[in-house]
């Protein structure tokens, strides 16, 4: 009887020990989970704090950079090329460009400022006279008629983009200059059929006034004489004028005109209908 009671007691103690161990395991798991959740929350809070700190640093740097740009802009108004270059570089950085792009912007600004100081800012450039002539193997009437078809110029001249003839005596031009374009308006002050055309022009980047005359050397040979007065205004125009780039361009465009007359106009002369009215003192006195 005592033996039975001793065995039962041992079994009860073992069961109690197992229950206690199970409770400890569950408590440990709960505690571990709680510790893991707390660690994740702490890491998340740390990241958020880091982002806020980084944002404040970036905002502070941006405000300082903005103040620097404003200060440089105020100083660069009366400063030299280096100050203008520093301003361009600071602006590029403030706009989020890379340091390499900012350095390129600074160099370009310094170059433009130096050239502007050399050639004069906003003042018209030195007057340049351009005289070119070309002989074309076609009758004078045909050459003159093709010349007055200004709307055809973009089809065979390399730099002419468009020509809009607002009236018999006024034309609006657009041409390519380097990587940009230029527009101007020309007004015909005198036009005599088969003889000559005289015009004046106005534009923001300078002007070109000129005369073109047509001379019959033989029944099928015509000389075109072009005289231009070119006064550049602008960086590209003044720079190009140093190397007589405009004179070379005029010479090339005359060759394009001759090629068009010899290969197109001569083959279909009946299709070339030029304007044969007469203009004097900027007024149309005779219409065709």
UniProtKB/TrEMBL annotation:
Q: What is this protein called?
A: SRPBCC family protein
Report the residue ranges that make up the Coenzyme Q-binding protein COQ10 START domain in this protein.
Answer: 136-256
Q: Which Pfam families match?
A: Polyketide_cyc (PF03364)
Please report the organism this UniProt entry assigns to the protein: Actinomadura graeca
């Amino acid at each position: 009887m005592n033996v039975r009671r001793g065995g039962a007691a041992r079994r009860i103690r073992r069961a109690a020990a197992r229950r206690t161990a199970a409770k400890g395991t569950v408590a440990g798991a709960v505690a571990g989970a709680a510790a893991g959740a707390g660690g994740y929350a702490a890491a998340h809070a740390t990241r958020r704090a880091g982002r806020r700190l980084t944002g404040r640093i970036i905002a502070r740097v941006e405000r300082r950079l903005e103040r620097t740009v404003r200060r440089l802009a105020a100083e660069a108004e009366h400063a030299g090329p280096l100050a203008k270059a520093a301003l361009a570089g600071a602006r590029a950085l403030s706009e989020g460009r890379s340091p390499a792009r900012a350095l390129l912007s600074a160099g370009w600004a310094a170059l433009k400022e130096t050239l502007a100081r050399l050639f004069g800012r906003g003042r018209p450039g030195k007057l340049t006279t351009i005289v070119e002539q070309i002989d074309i193997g076609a009758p004078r009437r045909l050459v003159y008629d093709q010349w007055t078809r200004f709307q055809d110029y973009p089809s065979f001249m390399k730099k002419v983009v468009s020509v809009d003839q607002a009236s018999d005596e006024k034309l609006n031009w657009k041409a390519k200059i380097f990587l940009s374009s230029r527009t101007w308006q020309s007004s015909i002050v005198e036009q005599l059929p088969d003889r000559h055309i005289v015009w004046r022009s106005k534009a923001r980047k300078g002007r070109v006034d000129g005369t073109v005359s047509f001379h019959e050397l033989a029944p099928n040979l015509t000389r075109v004489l072009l005289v231009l007065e070119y006064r550049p205004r602008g960086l590209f125009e003044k720079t190009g004028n140093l190397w007589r780039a405009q004179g070379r361009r005029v010479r090339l465009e005359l060759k394009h005109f001759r090629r068009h007359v010899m290969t197109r106009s001569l083959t279909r002369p009946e299709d070339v209908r030029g304007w044969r009215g007469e203009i004097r003192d900027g007024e149309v006195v005779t219409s065709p």
